[in-house]
Amino acid sequence: MSTATPADWQVRPAPRTAEEWIARAAAVAAVLATDAAARERAGAPPHEEVGLLKESGLVTLLGPAEHGGGGQDWTTAYRVIREIAKADGSLGQLLGYHYLWNWAARLVGTREQWEHVEAEAARNRWFFGGAVNPRDRDVVVTEDGDDLVFTGRKSFSTGSRVSDVTVLEGVLEGTDQHVFAIVPSNSAGLTFHDDWDNIGQRLTESGSVTIDGVRTPWSSAAGYVDKEFRPRVYNTLNVPTIQLVFVSFYLGIAAGALETAATYTRTRTRPWLHGGHDRAVDEPYVVDTYGDLTAKLWAVEALADAVAAEGQELHDDPDAVTEQARGDFEVRVAAVKARATDTALEIASRVFEVTGARSTTRAEGLDRFWRDIRTHTLHDPVAYKRREVGRWVLEGELPEPTWYS
């Protein structure tokens, strides 16, 4: 990380409003941006950068204020993710996944469980990772007295080596019951592998993990009472919530690409020698491209904010969430996910048209925005998001809650 470190966040007044938290995120992003391209090329685990997220208090954003958390809601969290992702897509993803896994206790657990987890997470500024990849073979969970024992392997575990705690998920042996539990990331039997080697989102620590007899008390099984799961429709909001997290860092990365490109165009891009202009910023095609891409980004950001507000109404009254309300919300999420995917990919690709050939040097790192977007937008096929919207429009069909819808 750059030697241009911030003043001690601990002595600064803690943000109290959504606007102050977003401003805090922008200040953190300014620090992350100073060496983002070089850091991405180096590919080292972002321990120091995650430390900055902790020191600045951003990791506690959704935590209860009475335990030192920010006391904010998801509409603010999505905006904070966007700000961080403008500077560093990997850190935006890490923070977004952290918020989801922190909130998972509330989504799935009993009140006693989630109040305990949220209090401890806020007090200790835990950073969350997760080993939950539904495309892999299920992790097997067995009983051993008052303990559960998780055994298996997952090919992706975002946050892994930079996390304090990890969310595990598996199927209770001999049943079809899924079990979520939070364990310390340094638990015996939990081994994170350094095998994440993708073209984008290179610092998300998303390598594979071996889960070899990791033990946790039955009492930590989220949502279980006397070894019986207590389901709620609210449990199924995990997917639309994480999909909005995806939207947030997609839009943040796209905004970062535009801002970085615009700075380059203003300061370094040369006008075309046959265009008749002295400055690149006066080239009609350059002005038009920036206007076009900015308008598209603003449109999707506005839709994302509207859908986030709709989702917050469900989070505010979880016991009143119905299948219809959940389904209608998932359709809206699918729509903004599709638009964000297409728009972010277009922006991250087309900025090269208005920066010029010299902007493609590795030192500039302008390609990292496209590589980050391209890598993560393959998480689940966007065609199926458009299908959800189309089926709802034509038949009133609600998406079936799955790991991806």
Automatic annotation (TrEMBL):
Database matches in InterPro entries: Acyl-CoA_DH_C, Acyl-CoA_Oxase/DH_mid-dom_sf, AcylCo_DH-like_C, AcylCoA_DH/ox_N, AcylCoA_DH/ox_N_sf, AcylCoA_DH/oxidase_NM_dom_sf
UniProt domain Acyl-CoA dehydrogenase C-terminal: residue ranges: 244-379
Pfam families: Acyl-CoA_dh_2, Acyl-CoA_dh_N
UniProt KW Signal keyword: no
Annotated GO MF terms: monooxygenase activity
Protein keywords: Monooxygenase, Oxidoreductase
PANTHER family with a match to the protein in the record: ACYL-COA DEHYDROGENASE (PTHR43884), ISOVALERYL-COA DEHYDROGENASE, MITOCHONDRIAL-RELATED (PTHR43884:SF12)
The protein's name: Monooxygenase
